[in-house]
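Local shape tokens

___
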Amino acid sequence: MKTALNTLTRLLDVLSRIALWIGGTGLVLMTAAVGWQVWGRFILNDSPSWTEPVSLLLMLWFILLVAAVGVRERFHLGLDLIRDIVPEIVRVCMDIASFVAVGCFGAAMAFYGLELVMGTWSATIPVLNIPEAVNYLPLTISGVLIVLFSVERTLHLLVERRSQAGSEALAQAHAQHSAIEQPAD
């Protein structure tokens, strides 16, 4: 189980890094497009028509991909006040419930995003002359990533908890065995 989880983690490390690179590149390209829009409007007195739809499209991609990575890296918003004061077992259960809920949300994003992609593939974005579905594709991709990252985090919690319980039991058995071997004074 542990080697399969390690393999999954390495694969998701690569997917996470790719998503972050695409997100970062999208942010830089969107900033350049907005800069070009400002330059065209105020300096050239001729606003390019393509900059707004490109900026919106890039923003959708980088926000949704980086949000999926946020699930994996746990830098999404959360209220840890209650989580930090409860016993360990309750904390683990809360974390698992959280990842299950986020995973279900990601599955809904992927499912309904795919419906939007399929329903809008034949329509085109007029200025860009690309399928309208490209606007909804990041919903599907980030939804799938959110599901994968949630499953990975849940498995890590369960495996760590199980191995923690096993090592605690081993330490307790070792302590009892040592106590039996100690000669009485």
Remarks:
- The chain has a mean pLDDT of 87.
- The helical segments are 2-42, 51-73, 81-85, 88-120, 137-181.
- Strands lie at 124-125, 130-131.
